């Protein structure tokens, strides 16, 4: 058989040669092509391996004609942390009406809510949003940019099916802005989306770029289109992720706390800036009152200067003091052995003001006591990054208790509702200070005081409720981000956390 095959092969080759199909030059050409193919394939394999490390940096320097849009998107997808390629949403195609630049003002959570609003507005107007600038000039004086707090690649990519977001203006448009060809303004607070269509969109179409220099509470809480409300939620709950460094350190704190049992996060809003701004000086000595007053007058944008602290407290407009907070937690029958994590900056008055709380709850901790100084060295003097750590821990606590209804308290409350109505004790401060004063003056026994406190808060645990709407008085109604009912799960779908039943009332 072998000889026959060989003979047949020779005969076939002779026929092919005779027909002119195969020649010496043809063989050489075939060998050259084969060798070239092998070399090209080797180069492709090597370049693919190198691209994992060098791709985005090397290719960024190559001519733009080489970087076709699809290839650039592929590189962007590869560089997006925490978002698998299969989960990348398709890009929404729309005619771009112009560019929206925004400068957020306030603390971390005020800016967080504003970013959600601005994404929803940009999507509705069919414009391109430039990654927001964060406040670097307020009391907190934090130099952090967006990318130092939030995962900017995830932010851009995860929302690409809704709105186009760029890290910076295109070069041609940037030159126009540098020449002053931009319209800057502060939009009206609590405006409907129709205001942005009727007033802001024509300005964008005229100037191509509009810069909104204030963003706090610029979109109404209620009566907005459902797609607007749900997009605000989507940005808040999935589009805004903290940087991997912040997320990892937050997970570390949570692991330490959970290892030691249930924990309560106490958002003790008793820092110097809050007391100076609010004028609430209950329990402060004369020198402290004078210091807080000087600070209030030093900031011209804090409009209220002359404040009656006692009257404001009785109206429930002051944050609870550490001493009032300790009494309240005990009255609520919070386990004295539970870990209490203080989510706040430096408490005004330091250990002296915390002594009553720590005497009752000896397992009181802070991130500074749970972590080594080396863990926090890159976060020091960056209050927004420190607040981001507290935000993550607050979401995962068995109980969350804010002592004042500021921006962090409201945004965390809403996020915990979204995660399954996790227990959040919403303190009735006006009632509490009245009960505390009666208890201290002997008008109520401890049992009477405790019973009234528990009874008053039995339905204030972050359970499902309707959002209170007050027409023409948006500051007094429920904040959208504290109770985003348009996006919350049905109570029937909620499964309680395993440790909730044993951690408190």
Molecular structure report:
51% of the residues lie in helices and 6% in strands. The chain is of the alpha/beta class. The strands form two sheets. It has a five-stranded parallel sheet. The chain has a four-stranded parallel sheet with strand order 8-7-6-9. β1 (99-102), α4 (108-125) and β2 (128-130) form a beta-alpha-beta unit. The termini are far apart. Residues 1-23, 47-82 and 498-504 have low confidence and may be disordered.
Q: What structural class do helix, strand and pairing data support?
A: alpha/beta
The biggest beta sheet, please?
Answer: 5 strands, parallel
| End-to-end CA span | 91 Å
Q: Name the average pLDDT.
A: 86
Integer-rounded radius of gyration: 31 Å
Uncertain stretches: 1-23, 47-82, 498-504
Q: Would you report the number of β strands?
A: 9
Count of helical stretches? 22
Helix content, binned percent = 40-55%
Q: Walk across the major sheet and give the strand order.
A: 3-2-1-5-4
What is the global morphology? globular
- Into which percentage range does the β-strand content fall? 5-15%
